[in-house]
Design a protein that fits this description.
mainly beta, 2 helices, binds 2-acetamido-2-deoxy-beta-D-glucopyranose, Chitin-bd_dom_sf
Length: 224
Amino acid sequence: MDRKLGLTVFFVLCTIWQVNAAVNCTATGAGRFTDGTDPTCQNYTYCVFVSSNSSYLAYNYVCPSTSVFNPASAKCTASTNYVCNVTTPAPANTSVCTADGFVADPNAVNCSSYIQCVQINGTFDETTFTCPANTFYDPNTTLCDSNYTCTTNTPPAANTTTAPFTCSTVGRFANSADTACKTYYYCVLANNGTFVQYNYTCPTTSVFSPTSRLCTTSYTCPTS
Ligand SMILES: *[C@@H]1O[C@H](CO)[C@@H](O)[C@H](O)[C@H]1NC(C)=O
Ligand SMILES: *[C@@H]1O[C@H](CO)[C@@H](O)[C@H](O)[C@H]1NC(C)=O
Ligand SMILES: *[C@@H]1O[C@H](CO)[C@@H](O)[C@H](O)[C@H]1NC(C)=O
Ligand SMILES: *[C@@H]1O[C@H](CO)[C@@H](O)[C@H](O)[C@H]1NC(C)=O
Ligand SMILES: *[C@@H]1O[C@H](CO)[C@@H](O)[C@H](O)[C@H]1NC(C)=O
Ligand SMILES: *[C@@H]1O[C@H](CO)[C@@H](O)[C@H](O)[C@H]1NC(C)=O
Ligand SMILES: *[C@@H]1O[C@H](CO)[C@@H](O)[C@H](O)[C@H]1NC(C)=O
Ligand SMILES: *[C@@H]1O[C@H](CO)[C@@H](O)[C@H](O)[C@H]1NC(C)=O
Ligand SMILES: *[C@@H]1O[C@H](CO)[C@@H](O)[C@H](O)[C@H]1NC(C)=O
Ligand SMILES: *[C@@H]1O[C@H](CO)[C@@H](O)[C@H](O)[C@H]1NC(C)=O
Ligand SMILES: *[C@@H]1O[C@H](CO)[C@@H](O)[C@H](O)[C@H]1NC(C)=O
Ligand SMILES: *[C@@H]1O[C@H](CO)[C@@H](O)[C@H](O)[C@H]1NC(C)=O
């Protein structure tokens, strides 16, 4: 009786653990295996074949103390007997940037923000900008637009904003007063027909190119 109860508890726990199995037991078959990505070499999975339903139960274990799992002998062994040589995989390139310019913010649910990409010394400097209220980032124009239809947005509600300066059309414009070419204006057309003006500064060593209208290290500021 006790043994049957014990087995039942055992299998219930196994079912829970099986969900998080580090190893695909269907691929490995029965036995003890490491998933091959554990840089500590201490983790292994025990795969048990259940003949009644031709499936596997999997248990994740950790070798005790400082011992490590030797995949050849399928046992935990002293670290002096087996040299763990699992190199952690190279960090994934999660950059959304592929060139100087602008890309939609993949985390923006509402097309409400975008990312400025500036390649500096081989890696991208990424700066996230938020569109003005009720405007949405249009990847085609790379501008925030009040009548761009974002596929995941909730419809715009109220009329938006104004600013002095001479924003007379939408887009990014060099600040001609800035001899260092570091700053630029960004003009967004609000729902009520007026412009919202932003002043931005290019990151680190990049400058604003008036021809490509973006921050880049490829442009040489004539006066700097
Ligand atoms: C596990 O391995 C089997 C056999 O190689 C394969 O068919 C199955 O898709 C794998 N399952 C997962 C979750 O990778
Ligand atoms: C090793 O196992 C421990 C305990 O289950 C877990 O916290 C850890 O994430 C595992 N490491 C790897 C690389 O799977
Ligand atoms: C196979 O049987 C075991 C033991 O009864 C159970 O824990 C497991 O969930 C079953 N697997 C499948 C895929 O039905
Ligand atoms: C570790 O593995 C790498 C690649 O598999 C190999 O080049 C290197 O010689 C190994 N180092 C040791 C100490 O075994
Ligand atoms: C990241 O991946 C993109 C696209 O695959 C590539 O263009 C870019 O150069 C990569 N960035 C780095 C820093 O490797
Ligand atoms: C999407 O936009 C609506 C209306 O502007 C706003 O109420 C909502 O909070 C936004 N959702 C997210 C996730 O930002
Ligand atoms: C880029 O690299 C050069 C030379 O390698 C270095 O002098 C400069 O500081 C770097 N610039 C940035 C912004 O990291
Ligand atoms: C971008 O422009 C192209 C060609 O002008 C058009 O076919 C496409 O639908 C536009 N995409 C969006 C998201 O507006
Ligand atoms: C916005 O909508 C107006 C009127 O529907 C249209 O004339 C204009 O071209 C649109 N602007 C953009 C950037 O699509
Ligand atoms: C346009 O709308 C914004 C708010 O949506 C408001 O701040 C601004 O004053 C409006 N401009 C005019 C001229 O009505
Ligand atoms: C936005 O402003 C325009 C011009 O003032 C007006 O005709 C329109 O009704 C306004 N829209 C909303 C949603 O208030
Ligand atoms: C943006 O630039 C305009 C014109 O040079 C200036 O009047 C305004 O104060 C600036 N705004 C900010 C926040 O720097």
